[in-house]
Amino acid sequence: AQTVTQSQPEMSVQEAETVTLSCTYDTSESDYYLFWYKQPPSRQMILVIRQEAYKQQNATENRFSVNFQKAAKSFSLKISDSQLGDAAMYFCAYRSAGYGNKLVFGAGTILRVKS
Amino acid sequence: NAGVTQTPKFQVLKTGQSMTLQCAQDMNHEYMSWYRQDPGMGLRLIHYSVGAGITDQGEVPNGYNVSRSTTEDFPLRLLSAAPSQTSVYFCATSLGGSSLEQYFGPGTRLTVT
Questions:
Q1: Which of A6, A102, A106 sits opposite B33 (nearest CB)?
Q2: Is the pLDDT confidence value at B1 over 70?
Q3: CA of B33: which chain A residue's CA is closest?
Q4: Cys-Cys link to A106, which of A4, A115, B90, B95 (CB 3.0-4.6 A)?
Q5: A103, A104, A105, A110, best to mutate vs chain B, most B CBs in 10 Å
Q6: Which of these, B30, B27, B23, lies nearest to B8 by C-alpha position?
Q7: Of B2, B11, B5, which Cα lies nearest the Cα of B78?
């Protein structure tokens, strides 16, 4: 079974600075997908960014980018120019490439943004 | 187009009571799933369905039942609530196939006393 580990329960960043959230995973599969979800206090789950394991190029979405290291099974999220609205719980998630659409989540990292 | 709706938003139950959490979607998605969110554990898959009439167990299925008689609805039943089922419950849907996008409902906060 696959597992996802987020080793940072909480992180803080100054507004306009850059922060990196860590995620490692364990799998024996070669084809899979990885995601970062944001959960603000409203509780809504919002997809931030995704990465296909077969792609070597790291995904980028505006201020959000990932560092995907397949051999190390590492998938970190970098948030540049942090904004107050980035404050939330962030979840790393894994999905197999095969049939079905089941997600395996990490425990989450609370990100606090200081003004 | 309402997307994914969940009712109720909040619920308090006594131990041993039963109830059904409702999930409905109007996007004609094949895949529907139920997750529970607990502090320090992230979201864990309870049950999922890949189409009407087809359901299967996820990581933490004990104490929960599901059925999928229509594409639109995927109710989650607690037959005899226990304090360990106190959690926030999310329904999620996906088009299926190669689609990667999952759409989450707003969640239901359930407290069992």
A1: A102
A2: no
A3: A102
A4: A4
A5: A103
A6: B23
A7: B11
Q: How much is the pLDDT for A93?
A: 96
For residue B58, which residues of chain A lie inside 8 Å, CB to CB? Answer: 102
Tokens standing for residue B24: 């409905």
How far apart, in whole angstroms, are the C-alpha atoms of residue A77 and residue A21?
A: 5
Nearest one of B6, B30, B10 to B90, comparing CA atoms: B6
pLDDT tens readout for residues A40-88:
999 999 999 999 999 989 999 999 999 999 999 999 999 999 999 999 9
Whole-number Å distance between alpha carbons of A17 and A27: 33
Contacting residues of B for A9, CB less than 8 Å apart: 40
Chain A residues with CB under 8 Å of B44 CB are: 105
Give the position of tokens 């597992």. A3
Using left for φ > 0, alpha for ψ between -120 and 50, and beta otherwise, residue B42 falls in left
Provide the percentage of residues in chain A whose pLDDT is more than 90: 91
- pLDDT, residue B96, reads 76
